[in-house]
Design goal:
The protein has 484 residues and is mainly alpha-helical. The protein has 17 helices and 2 strands. The longest helix has 32 residues. The chain starts with 9 loop residues before the first strand and ends in an 8-residue tail after the last helix.
Length: 484
């Protein structure tokens, strides 16, 4: 009997209404865990994989700055807008089923990206790719929450955090290697086409190894909440990501003016639905969970800084230091390796030092980013991989101590029947913050580089990222000491 789908134990639990029932608990086996982690890696890799390919895309498709930013932003905005809805749909129709639909759509939209004949088609395909990612990713955390418990859940959550962090760094490394390799003359297109066989493999493995789970009390789709959340995120992220390249036209200022009203309307609508006993898209009652609320408060500045850094460093290495795509990718290998080592050590350190591991990670990351800034200031423009390695390794190690633990904390008290909603809220926060980091720190860097120079622009941006890390360190002091 397969250990992935067999009901190997029976649990007696209380539903949120207080009714006790006994039912077999599906178990996620090793192959199933690998499969869902593969599904977690793909969307995050593809958010960052285009960074090192943008110059090549520009030359091949004559895209221009505005279109290039849409290639990045179109994916990120669609992804962020639909993540919570993806979690809700998984709760309703089954998480494995929606995971299969999402990964199939991801493969097809990746094919469309790789075959795009012009920049506008590529942007449209990237938006569709982001939407398919939003169907797939929330099912990963929800499945882990619903099919694991105790030490096994802690291990799975640690692996999820490690996968997420490594994927964000590895995306740019893989992108550089693929662009330079020019497989069969495909150039930048290979960064998308490589997803197709991976998606097919993921579908086969998911059908065989991932157990089906869904909420015991699935709620209908919250249409007003979905529309208002989408409006809020679009009116914030779209003008910030596109405004600089488009010259800040009138629509960008109108959109930013609409954002606070859309966000307020979303909150009031969700609160009213919660008070009526309905199940809104983002239940305010869920935000009353201390671990979730305080954990999300750290995910936000962490991801803003991380998203901005990864975009800025890709541009600085290629355009400022004239590195090729492979060299620019390899410059991040020390960060990826250190992140991986820290994520392996994290569970053991959490058992001894609890949530203070996050504080220590933030302080180590501060030192790492400061070292990078000093190295850039004193070594520009003769920097190479070796000179950057100490700073990137320290920064990666600090990040690896933070992200996996934060994910565990955020979801530690979320009820199993709301696993899809909880994972959707967390991944939406993370993805929105990553896109916001690219939009704010990235736009600032590009503006400064044309006025004060690339070195000065990079150092100023790194100092601003230091501010986000300091905020993370201070907020980490308010985390629950115990990490369950």
């Amino acid at each position: 009997m397969s250990n992935t789908t067999a009901s190997v134990r029976t649990t007696s639990s209380l539903t949120p209404t207080g009714t006790r029932h006994d039912h077999p608990t599906p178990v996620l086996g090793t192959l199933g865990l690998f499969t869902v982690l593969l599904g977690a890696a793909l969307p995050l890799i593809d958010f960052f994989i285009v960074n090192v390919a943008l110059p090549t895309i520009d030359r091949d498709l004559a895209a221009g700055p505005a279109m290039l930013e849409l290639v990045v932003a179109g994916y990120g905005v669609a992804y962020a807008v639909l993540l919570v809805l993806g979690g809700r749909l998984g709760d309703m129709i089954g998480r494995r089923r929606l995971f299969l639909i999402g990964i199939a759509a991801f493969g097809l939209t990746s094919l469309a990206c790789g075959l795009a004949p012009d920049a506008l088609t590529l942007v449209g395909a990237r938006v569709a790719q982001g939407a398919s990612s939003a169907l797939m990713l929330p099912q990963v955390l929800a499945t882990i929450q619903a099919t694991t418990a105790g030490p096994r859940r802690a291990k799975a959550m640690g692996l999820y955090g490690a996968t997420a962090g490594l994927s964000m760094v590895a995306g740019q490394i893989i992108g550089g290697v693929l662009v330079a390799a020019d497989v069969a003359g495909t150039g930048w297109r290979s960064i998308f086409l490589v997803n197709v066989p991976v998606a097919v493999l993921g579908m086969i493995l998911a059908a065989r190894s991932v157990p089906e789970t869904r909420s015991d009390r699935p709620a209908p789709v919250d249409v007003p909440g979905t529309l208002l959340l989408g409006l809020s995120l679009i009116t914030l992220l779209a003008p910030l990501t596109e405004g600089r390249a488009a010259g800040w036209p009138l629509w960008t200022w109108i959109s930013l003016g609409v954002f606070p009203f859309a966000a307020a309307a979303f909150f009031l609508t969700e609160r009213a639905a919660d008070r009526r006993g309905e199940v809104p898209l983002v239940p305010p009652s869920l935000l009353r969970l201390d671990s979730l609320r305080r954990g999300l408060a750290l995910v936000l500045p962490f991801s803003v800084g991380f998203g901005g850094f990864m975009f800025v460093i890709a541009v600085a290495l290629q355009q400022g230091l004239r590195m090729g795509p492979v060299t620019a990718g390899l410059a991040l290998v020390p960060m990826a390796a250190a992140f991986f080592l820290a994520s392996l050590a994290g569970p053991r350190l959490v058992g001894r030092f609890a949530s203070r591991v996050v504080t220590a990670g933030a302080l180590i990351q501060v030192v790492g980013v400061a070292v990078i800034a000093a190295t850039v200031w004193w070594g520009w423009p003769g920097l190479g991989i070796a000179a950057l390695a100490p700073g990137t390794a320290l920064a990666g190690f600090g990040q690896g101590l933070q992200l996996p633990v934060l994910f565990r904390i955020v979801l530690s008290d979320v009820p199993a029947d709301r696993a899809g909603v909880g994972s959707g809220v967390m991944t939406t926060t993370q993805q929105s913050a990553l896109a916001l980091g690219v939009a704010t720190l990235g736009s600032l860097f590009l503006s400064l580089s044309s006025s004060v120079g690339m070195r000065e622009a990079l150092v100023i941006t790194l100092l601003l990222q230091l501010g986000t890390i300091v905020v993370t360190a201070l907020l980490s002091l308010r985390l629950p000491r115990a990490v369950r």
